[in-house]
Specification:
single chain; alpha+beta; Type Iii Antifreeze Protein Isoform Hplc 12; 2 domains; 2 helices; about 15% helix; elongated
Length: about 220
């Protein structure tokens, strides 16, 4: 009869230890808190720097020259301009709208509201006149939105004649790029002016065709 063999295993395994959460004095805890805080601050700065858009007004519907601009005609838009200086050409949402604000030219639905298209009720009674002006007789600072005086200079063969003021303090509604004849050093600029409706345009039109118009910028 075979006897049973009992084998006794040695109790060499270490006792189980329950994991304890780190205490508030544990430096690992404070290191973790510092890392989280730095990440939050850095993320906020990155998001803030990425938002370089500018709030400007855009037109909610087509508006014609002479239309009064009301708050209901505008909507806020956030725009990122390639050149920050370009934002100054449009009406900011931070600007207060004057009560007598009218358009000196038409603005289409969804178009940003340009400062150059804005005037007062006194500017509404104008007509648009395109004039051709020798480049040397237009200040380089004159562009869309500028205010100018328009002079008619005498013909080069008339030594005794003096320049005449054709119209003063008018707005430059548009200023397309200048043009020059091929192979010629002379250049001309086409400018669209807002001329009061009661102005006699005959002399100014003839002078424009003969290259005898000079503009003087106002401020």
């Amino acid at each position: 009869m075979m006897g049973r063999v009992h084998t006794t295993l040695g109790n060499d395994a270490p006792p189980a230890v329950r994991a304890q959460p780190p205490g508030w004095r544990d430096p690992r805890l404070w290191i973790g808190v510092a890392i989280v805080a730095v990440s939050v601050v850095a993320g906020a700065r990155i998001v803030g720097a990425a938002d370089d858009t500018v709030g400007v007004w855009e037109v909610a519907g087509d508006l014609a020259p002479g239309d009064r601009v009301e708050p209901g005609d505008l909507e806020q838009a956030r725009v990122r301009f390639a050149e920050p200086a370009d934002a100054g050409h449009y009406l900011s949402v931070e600007d207060e709208l004057p009560d007598d604000l009218v358009l000196t030219r038409g603005v289409g639905d969804g178009e940003l509201l340009p400062r150059a298209a804005l005037g007062t009720a006194d500017d509404a009674g104008t007509v648009s006149l395109s004039v051709s002006v020798p480049g040397a007789q237009v200040p380089t600072s004159v562009g869309t939105g500028s205010r100018v005086d328009v002079w008619i200079v005498p013909d080069s063969g008339d030594d005794g004649a003096a320049a005449e003021l054709a119209v003063e303090d008018v707005a430059v509604i548009d200023s397309p790029a200048g043009s020059s004849d091929f192979g010629s050093s002379s250049s001309e600029r086409q400018l669209v002016l807002g001329i009061p409706v009661d102005t006699d345009l005959s002399d100014l039109v003839l002078a424009s065709g003969a290259g005898r118009v000079m503009l003087v910028g106002r401020g």
